[in-house]
Amino acid sequence: MSPLWLSIMIAAVGCYVLKLAGVSLPDSILNHSKVQRVAQFLPIAMLSALVAVELFDGGGSYSLDWRTLAGVAAAVIALLLRRGFLVVFLIAISVTALLRLVT
Amino acid sequence: MEEPLPERGLIFRAAIGIGLYAMAFGASFGAISVGSGLTVGQTMVLSLVMFTGASQFAFVGVAASGGSPFAAVPAALLLGVRNAFYGVPVSEILHPRGFARLWTAHFVIDETTAMAISQATPQAKRYAFWATGLILFSLWQLGSLAGGLVGRAVNPADIGLDAAAPAVFLALLWPMLRRTEARWVALGGALLALALVPIAPPGVPVVASAIVALVGGLLPTRQVVEQIDDKDAT
Q1: Which residue, among B164, B35, B168, has the nearest Cα to A97 in the 3D structure?
Q2: In whole angstroms, what is the distance from residue B112 CA to residue B198 CA?
Q3: Does B34 touch chain A (CB under 8 A)?
Q4: Which ranges of chain B would DSSP assign to H, the alpha helix?
Q5: How far is the C-alpha of A89 from the C-alpha of A40, rounded, in Å?
Q6: Which residues of B39-74 are buried (b: 16+ CB within 10 A; e: fewer)?
Q7: Measured between CA atoms, how close is B2 to chain A, in angstroms?
Q8: B179 sits in which H/E element
Q9: SS3 B107
Q10: Which residues of A60-94 are buried (b: 16+ CB within 10 A; e: fewer)?
Q11: 3-state secondary structure (DSSP) of residue A60
């Protein structure tokens, strides 16, 4: 099994085990306000880190493709205008694709 | 025999709406995943077995950043932690016992939990969980497969797919940023990850941002108490 396949299996089964733990563990462990706050903040910190890394990481050094940045900036405008997920997605890729086509 | 459920049609229509949204979301996942270097088969294993959107996007995002694919494992797992906490309200609604736990658990995600807890009666909650779960699961697979096949046929950069992953993460993050403290956590996570980019191996900056959540969550919540006190006083 290749390292990629193996990591896919570990991560996928691990995510399932987390769900299973949620419906199996006694409430008292998960019903703790500090624990819940950390759990609530986890996706916020990590999704935000992912946005930053996707935009500025050029493989261990900082780099930025302004066309990608422009696409994501357009997505932010769509989000500010309360557009749905699909619109945000399509705007981001079409702006980037168009800029790449003409430059 | 179950009593007839008056709100059944309403819940079903809402579940279809969520499912269609998930299909579009799944299609973007499939395209990004294949664009990141995974095969269509690997993409489908993630959608079928992992079946939790943010973790799947994070996995392919980190796996594509070079270095060992194992760096993507903790990122996916840490983003999957919230599903464990959804198990508390879901267990109170469904009371799964024995083997039922094994297959109920697979469907405990953002959308099914939100749909279940927002219904008024226990019967409606159960119906909402399963209608949303089964429809969303099917359409998520369909979307992932379609997106994966499209992604395989084109050059990802040509159709601007490199902008899709950060845009998707932003769209997932957006509704979580209503509270000020959440914005500080988001800013802290992004800055810490950025600072680590030149010095840490691929994947580590994203996982390290979990420290910001840990610190933020364990800090005393004085501000919140003050706000409640103010409200009581007026």
Answers
A1: B164
A2: 39
A3: no
A4: 8-35, 40-45, 53-63, 72-94, 99-105, 110-117, 122-153, 164-173, 180-196, 204-208, 210-218, 222-233
A5: 25
A6: ebebbbbbbeebbbbbbbbbbbbbbbbeeebbbbbb
A7: 24
A8: none
A9: coil
A10: eeeeebebbbbbbebbbebbeeebebbbbbbbbbe
A11: coil
- Identify from B60, B68, B209 which residue to disrupt to test chain A contact, counting A C-beta atoms within 10 A and taking the largest count: B209
Q: What number is the average pLDDT over the span A29-37?
A: 82
Report the 10 Å Cβ neighbour count for B109: 26
Rounded CA-CA distance B142/A54 in Å is 26
A18: nearest CB among B84, B166, B218: B84
CA-CA distance, B63 to B42, in Å (whole number)? 12
Closest CA to A97 of A67, A74, A72, A65: A67
What is d(CA A37, CA B216) in angstroms, rounded to the nearest whole number? 8
- Kindly report the pTM of this predicted structure: 0.83
Residues 6+ apart with CB under 8 A from A89: A75, B24, B28, B164, B167, B168, B171
- Is residue A16 within 8 Å of B106, Cβ to Cβ? yes
Question: pLDDT per residue over B46-90, tens digit each?
Answer: 999 999 999 999 999 899 887 789 999 999 999 999 999 899 889
B133 in A contact zone (CB under 8 Å): no
* Residue bearing tokens 């796996």: B63
Size of interface A-B (CB pairs under 8 A): 315
What b/e readout covers B82-104, taking b as 16+ CB neighbours within 10 angstroms?
Answer: bbbbbbbbbbebbebeeeebeeb
What are B162-189's pLDDT values in tens digits?
898 899 889 889 988 999 999 999 999 9
Q: How far apart are CA B37 and CA B42, in angstroms?
A: 10
Contact B173 A25 (CB under 8 A): no
Give chain A's length: 103
